Amino acid sequence: xxxxxxxxxxxxxxxxxxxxxxxxxxxAGNVLAGPQTRGERITVExxxxxxxxxxxxxxxxxxxxxxxAGRYAHPDDDRDAVALDPAFSGFGRAATxxxxxxxxxxxxxxxxxxxxxxxxxxxxxxxxxxRGLLSHLFTRLYFADxxxxxxxxxxxxxxxxxxxxxxxxxRDGTAQxxxxxxxxxxxxxxxxxxxDA
Amino acid sequence: MxxxxxxxxxxxxxxxxxAFAGYGSTAxxxxxxxxxxxxxxxxxxxxxxxxHAAVAPLDDDLTRNxxxxxxxxxxRIIVTxxxxxxxxxxxxxxxxxxxxxxxAGRYLHARDTxxxxxxxxxxxxxxxxxxxxxxxxxxxxxxxxxxWRNHANAWRPPHIHFSLFGPTFVTRLVTQMxxxxxxxxxxxxxxxxxxxxxxRERLVxxxxxxxxxxxxxxxxxxDIVLRGPAATPTET
Lengths: 197, 236
Known about the structure:
The complex is a heterodimer of chains A (197) and B (236). Chain A has 197 residues and is mostly beta strands. Chain A has one domain (14-185): Aromatic compound dioxygenase (Protocatechuate 3,4-Dioxygenase, subunit A, Sandwich). Chain A has helices at 14-17, 147-152, 154-157, and strands at 41-49, 59-64, 91-95, 101-107, 123-130, 137-143, 168-172, 179-181, 184-185, 195-196. In chain A, strands 1, 2, 3, 4, 5, 6, 7, 8 and 9 form a 9-stranded mixed beta sheet that branches. In chain A, a hairpin with a 6-residue loop joins β5 and β6. Chain B is mostly beta strands and 236 residues long. Helix content of chain B is 4%, strand content 25%. In chain B, the strands form 2 sheets. In chain B, strands 2, 3, 4, 5, 8, 9, 10, 11 and 12 form a 9-stranded mixed beta sheet that branches. In chain B, strands 6-7 form a two-stranded antiparallel ribbon. Chains A and B meet through α1, β5, β6 and β10 of A and β1, β3, β4, β9 and α2 of B. β10 of chain A pairs parallel with β1 of chain B.
């Protein structure tokens, strides 16, 4: 059966996908790590910018990640040797602010298997939705301080070396918890790598 | 580890391209470089799980979920359909989120400046989880058309936004549902960014007298097809 076409999320998605009205409970927000969550707490920050470098103030970033041990909270990740964390669902949503910024409070994910006998570097899986995007975009965030793991990562290896830096978040260890920063550039000379996932 | 199935690719004959000249906002937002192919891993073949516990009883009834002192104005409608994968199998227990303008064509949103009235009894947001057969059902108000500034005298055809997860991260779909016979459809660049006429038809809900409830509400059917497991299993 042919797939239903995608359409833009438009500028008014907050109503359902990022509600902030009292009494409306969002299914997910930008805080993934609660007091009981296991692992290293981190903040992930960035801005979404358009081809002119102008902040995109009406984007929605969705995040899907493994827990600190490297297990996804999903029935098809059935690796019982890696512990689930009952205090971590792995999904978050953040709408960008007036300056195009987004922010997640989460934990650093563990490594998960890649295809064949490979191991992927720790990463966050991201979806970008916005007015002007007729289909959502898939990208990933890797951690710049995981140089060794990044060197072994089969997905990064398939990316043109001159563009890999667009997926690498720099660590600011002076903040507590540490902050990883990565801007998402929809277009332009430093356009972020987007995947046909 | 266990063999897992890759999911079918995004069918770019069905989906709109990122850059579409008629839709002005794509000009600086559409990526200019080709997407980088990504063979599916556990990261793509898992995804957020939201079951029945995620929704409250009134979440699927937009005529009641924000009612303060009465019913929202406008034409009450029922919108129902099945969520299927591209092999025609139902997608059960998946979250469907919707949002829309009110009957006057106004969103309850700070950025909506259209000079049309808000409705104190209507928020325009709802959600539900599909049943074992992949079916979802919403009760709502038929949304109005509204102007936007994409081109001179531009009007969006009445539509309802849909957001779906499906079983994995790559089955994510955000789309819009339109109404059959609307003269604005031919003029709408967002709808017409979908390259194939048959694919555009799949965004249009069908009036159904069977779904219509006597003395209560008109019924529309809108099935949604997500990517599904590819036919051939591959080792991961």
